[in-house]
Design a protein that fits this description.
Layout lengths: L18 E4 L7 E4 L3 E5 L4 E5 L2 H5 L4 H12 L5 E5 L8 H16 L3 E5 L3 H9 L7 E3 L2 H8 L6
Parallel strand pairs: 4-5, 5-6, 6-7
Antiparallel strand pairs: 1-2, 3-4
Helix pairs in contact: 2-3
């Protein structure tokens, strides 16, 4: 039996391939699991694209949080451009994951820029004053440009 609640991200990063996992107990059944985000490694940054809002906003989704944080831990000075185009709502769990991601990037002397932020999500971040905490760009190229170091004279 498949339901939207059975979708959680896989531990493997950078792919949208479906995998099958047991429900954590012998004979517990098998369910399809889809990645909630994809990655694209570019020369100047790692692009992270969320595939839907549900995975980010599910407070039980520790696998998503851990996979995102692992992206940062495996990179010195991580530069992340995060595409939120398909995220049309943000729960407190989603906000916590994004704040945690930024804090981890900051502690590793990196930078994260969110782009294609939907108006309703942008309004929420503004009300919470998180638009001052996060760097937000309109599109992918401006986000990548914001990640590049400033030229020195």
């Amino acid at each position: 039996m498949h339901s939207p609640d059975s979708r959680v991200p896989t531990a493997g990063l950078g792919s949208l391939a479906a995998s099958r996992v047991c429900n954590g107990r012998p004979g517990g059944g098998i369910r399809d699991v889809m990645s909630a985000f994809s990655t694209q490694d570019r020369a100047d940054a790692l692009i992270v694209r969320f595939e839907a809002a549900a995975g980010l906003n599910d407070f039980r989704n520790n696998a998503l949080r851990d996979a995102l944080y692992e992206l940062v831990q495996n990179r010195p000075n991580p530069l992340l451009a995060v595409d939120l185009q398909k995220v049309d709502f943000l729960s407190s769990s989603g906000v916590a994951i994004l704040v945690g991601l930024k804090r981890r990037v900051d502690t590793r002397n990196g930078k994260v820029v969110f782009y294609h932020v939907q108006p309703i999500v942008r309004d929420l971040l503004s009300v919470m004053k998180l638009d001052r905490f996060f760097t937000i760009a309109e599109g992918e190229e401006p986000a990548l440009a914001a990640l590049r170091p400033l030229p020195t004279a």
